[in-house]
């Protein structure tokens, strides 16, 4: 994985050098559940910040030029799911494209696409609180100095379903897609569900993966737009989220997006 990350970091860095100061470089990393897109996006963002600090010796080590932005916060709330015509299915399928607030996500992308100027204020995106099992509004700050936005989520290169997904994807500078063998994804998801307590055992974890996660994965694959990068995810130590301190636990059985 490290070789792939280094190549993508360098590619992004080179594009950043050519970007005008008034523009953010926006990259969306997508893939099916269990593909490792969260791990990849977080590592690229972290290494970009390391590179920026290394090339600007006077800066503090915590200075960030890249912001890692998961779309977890755009899950519909449990109350919104309960208000749907079929609340049982809505809760059971939490994590499917229709259980996200696509219009709100598009609105964030439009804000980030506005030119950066001295008057530009910090923009806030929602996060997801696993304790309360719902999004937290305006919890992730995106400062004016955040010139590279590394977004990650299942549906960031989706051209089908709600039109907002496609419109948001077309506003990105690059779309990256993490491909993974379905059996590898199934094993990762099964383990994730058991470790998080969503499933009591491996059989339940596999059932959850097959009946929700990989059903969503099929939609993601079939509706995928043309992307700039396809990254192969394999079962090696580089794809372990724990290395970046990434919380793998999800609410109600929904996969990390």
Automatic annotation (TrEMBL):
Residues 201-220, 225-257 are annotated as: Disordered. It comes from Saxophila tyrrhenica. This is P-loop containing nucleoside triphosphate hydrolase protein.
């Amino acid at each position: 994985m490290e070789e792939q990350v280094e190549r993508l970091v360098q590619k992004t860095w080179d594009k950043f050098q050519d970007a005008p100061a008034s523009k953010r470089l926006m990259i969306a990393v997508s893939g099916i559940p269990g593909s490792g897109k969260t791990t990849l996006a977080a590592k690229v963002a972290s290494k970009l910040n390391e590179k920026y600090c290394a090339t600007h010796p006077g800066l503090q080590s915590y200075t960030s030029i890249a912001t890692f932005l998961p779309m977890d916060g755009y899950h519909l709330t449990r109350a919104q799911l309960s208000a749907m015509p079929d609340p049982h299915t809505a809760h059971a399928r939490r994590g499917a494209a229709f259980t996200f607030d696509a219009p709100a996500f598009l609105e964030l992308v439009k804000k980030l696409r506005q030119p950066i100027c001295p008057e530009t204020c910090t923009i806030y995106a929602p996060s997801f609180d696993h304790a309360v099992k719902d999004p937290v509004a305006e919890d992730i700050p995106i400062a004016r100095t955040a010139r590279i936005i590394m977004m990650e989520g299942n549906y960031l290169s989706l051209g089908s379903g709600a039109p907002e997904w496609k419109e948001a994807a077309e506003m990105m500078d690059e779309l990256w897609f993490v491909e993974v063998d379905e059996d590898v994804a199934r094993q990762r998801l099964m383990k994730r569900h058991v470790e998080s307590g969503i499933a009591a055992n491996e059989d339940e974890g596999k059932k959850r993966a097959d009946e929700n996660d990989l059903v969503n994965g099929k939609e993601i694959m079939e509706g995928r737009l043309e992307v700039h990068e396809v990254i192969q995810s394999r079962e090696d130590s580089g794809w372990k989220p724990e290395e970046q301190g990434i919380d793998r636990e999800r609410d109600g059985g929904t996969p990390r997006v």
